[in-house]
Amino acid sequence: MERERIGFVGTSDLAGHFRGKSFPMADLPARLVRGVGLAPSNMMLSAFGPIYETPFGTEGEVFLIPDPGTHVEVMFGDAAPEIFFIGDIRTFDGTPWAYCPRNFLRRAVNALEDETGLRLLSAFEQEFVYTGAEARPASPYRLDALRRQGIFGEALLAALRAAGLTPDSFLAEYGARQYEVTIAPAIGVTAADNAVITRELTQAVAFRLGQRTIHAPIMDPNDVGTGTHIHFSLVDGAGAPALPDLSGPYGLSEVGSRFIAGILHHMPAITAVTAPSVASYYRLRPNRWAPTTANLASLDRGAAVRLCSAPGSDGDTSARQFNAEFRVADAAASPYLALGMLVHAGLDGVRKKMALPSPGQAKGASRLPASLDEALDFLAGNGEARDWFGADFLDVYLMFKRSEIHSLDGLDEQEICRRYAEVY
Ligand code: GLU
Ligand code: MG
Questions:
Q1: Which residue's C-alpha comes closest to atom 6 of ligand 1?
Q2: What tens digit of pLDDT does each residue of 10-67 get?
Q3: Which of 80, 96, 144, 276 shows its CA 20 to 30 Å from the CA of 109?
Q4: Exposed, middle or buried: residue 360 (CB in 10 Å: 0-12, 13-18, 19+)?
Q5: How far is the CA of 226 from the centre of ligand 1 (A)?
Q6: What residues does ligand 1 touch, defined as CB less than 6 Å away?
Q7: What secondary structure, in 3-state letters, does the chain show?
Q8: For residue 210, what are the β-bridge partners?
Q9: What is the pTM of this model?
Q10: Distance from the alpha carbon of residue 330 to the mean position of ligand 1, in angstroms
Q11: Which ligand has the minimum distance to the alpha carbon of residue 302?
């Protein structure tokens, strides 16, 4: 059968879904200039599909322009290849659209670099459930659990490398049929691009094997959840690590401690973006290796921000491995919005010279919001977050998420988990 290559351009939208449009690859040169047209209301497509509410109506046109630096092309033998790009949403005159998630992050990393000379280095550690593995008791972290996912992991690592990414790990996790993939850190917006590409290729490989991966925050309200942990550090203009200073409290440099203090300070509002589904809050409960308070701790998997260090062959290697891990995120979040919130909040901490609690006081940290509703109220009341988004974008985000809550009215926790597991 004759075949012709089809490419796709998308963005990880307000629901954290990778949505866009496809085009014949023969037209790529033209599409790199004019992109694909979208209705502004496309941004209001909910996690579950339908548009519940939109301020944009049916009018207008914006343009999703493929970024050639994000070109992914992975072959799967005789099966259809994966050919896609990540795009930027622009208006007719070529300026960034005020509601473009990727531009929200770009503005944050540019401001960080302009004001501090530092760049963000980060990597997403993504957990998910693989339907092709058998759920067996006592399987967490066992070689047997790795074996039982068959060739999925190997095919995933190969697909990631074919896409130009560098896998760091693939492993069997704590939960039933749960696995995790992490890739090497990258600078600025590229780290979030890599997270989107990783998530898509994870689903793509599972699909080619007749299975699917489920990235929903939690499968059962009584069980362990599925997190997306964001590891981050700061590097200076020469690429040298700027987060650690082994003589400082927590082993953090002054700018590093201010950056993390900003994240802790804005945690309630950040949570509305990084844990953005109703089910996200069933994960953030005690004894699940998920955080419940807005705290910082070294090497504690229950902390909201965990400082991670690893043995290195010398001081320089250790300093490069030292990073902070933000654990209040899951896969319902767009990596652009999640990482963007961390950088905007961290930069606010640097600007205002915020200080961390001394290591002894960290126990008194405030609790995280207990529901999406509560988190959205914090976001709505956060004046700085209104500036980071822009007032219109913030109101649109609040409308979007509140309508998601209403769409689940009357359902119990089990059913809500089931609904999210269907779509993530
Ligand atoms: N699955 C846990 C979570 O929901 C994390 C387990 C781990 O520490 O990797 O975040
Ligand atoms: Mg994990």
A1: 289
A2: 999 999 999 999 999 999 999 999 999 999 999 999 999 999 999 999 999 999 999 9
A3: 276
A4: exposed
A5: 6
A6: 127, 174, 224-227, 283, 288-290, 301, 327
A7: CCCCCEEEEEEECCCCCEEEEEEEHHHHHHHHHHCEEECHHHHHECCCCCECCCCCCCCCCEEEEECHHHCEEEEECCEEEEEEEEEEEECCCCCECCCCHHHHHHHHHHHHHHHHCCEEEEEEEEEEEECCCCCCCCCCCCHHHHHCCCCHHHHHHHHHHHCCCCEEEEEECCCCCEEEEEECCEECHHHHHHHHHHHHHHHHHHHHCCCCEECCCCCCCCCCCCCEEEEEEEECCCCCECCECCCCHHHECHHHHHHHHHHHHCHHHHHHHHCCCCCHHHHCCCCCCCCCECCEEECCCCCCEEEECCCCCCHHHHHHHCEEEECCCCCCCCHHHHHHHHHHHHHHHHHCCCCCCCHHHHHHCCECCCCHHHHHHHHHCCHHHHHHHCHHHHHHHHHHHHHHHHHCCCCCHHHHHHHHHHHC
A8: none
A9: 0.96
A10: 10
A11: 1
